[in-house]
Amino acid sequence: MMTAVFQPKSGPAGIGVLAPDVEVSQMGSLYEEASGLSSEELSFLGVQRALELARSLESMRVIVLLADEKAVRLINRETPILPGSLLALYYIKIRALMYTFKSAQIVAVPRGRVRPAIKLAAAHGRISERRTAIQKTLFNG
Question: Helices (DSSP H) in the chain: which residue ranges?
Answer without folding.
Answer: 24-28, 39-56, 69-75, 87-98, 115-125
